[in-house]
Amino acid sequence: MAKQQSRQQGITLRGSAEIVAEFFSYGINSILYQRGIYPPETFTHVQKYGLTMLVTADSELKNYLNNVVGQLKEWLAECSVQRLVVVISSKETSEVLERWQFDIECDKTAKDENAPREKSQKAIQDEIKSVIRQITATVTFLPLLETTCAFDLLVYTDKDLEVPEKWEESGPQFIANSEEVRLRSFTTTIHKVSSMVAYKKESFP
Predict the structure, then answer these.
(1) In whole angstroms, how far apart are CA 140 and each of 110, 135, 136, 175, 198?
(2) What is the pLDDT of residues 90-101, one digit of tens each?
């Protein structure tokens, strides 16, 4: 029993992968809501990280995100994913307007460890809460998206990784003439996630 308890308090590679994948699920939902990619009435309130979060109630989008996050969790547990990017582009012109980039560093020595790492769930959740708060606060400085937009998810993995059939190769979808803002990072001691958002500079006549 004591052994079981200590396992819950420490961080294992699989436990870390679950924490990070869950963050991406809430983080992506938050971006889609904050940037108005889907109508606000298609989101529902949930409590997470001591915050009121908004998650999609749209069944098609929910299934898509669940599939992506489920696959991400596997790759995180294998330390074979390096970056997740949420790309927001104009539906009309396909021009990329925003690029939310999450860089993932994984301590691969965790693969060979039997003992969990020492870091409390609360400490990790507090760090994640700060990142989510920043995502929410970005609406104060990001330019208004004045056109109907769509989003894409790009996942950067190790070159030799076998990619599921439904996934396709993509270019990096950079923004021409962009501004960048670094957001906070968080770490589980096994995975470290650093965030930034790039957006198109407003061009004045």
Answers:
(1) 39, 10, 9, 20, 14
(2) 999 999 999 999
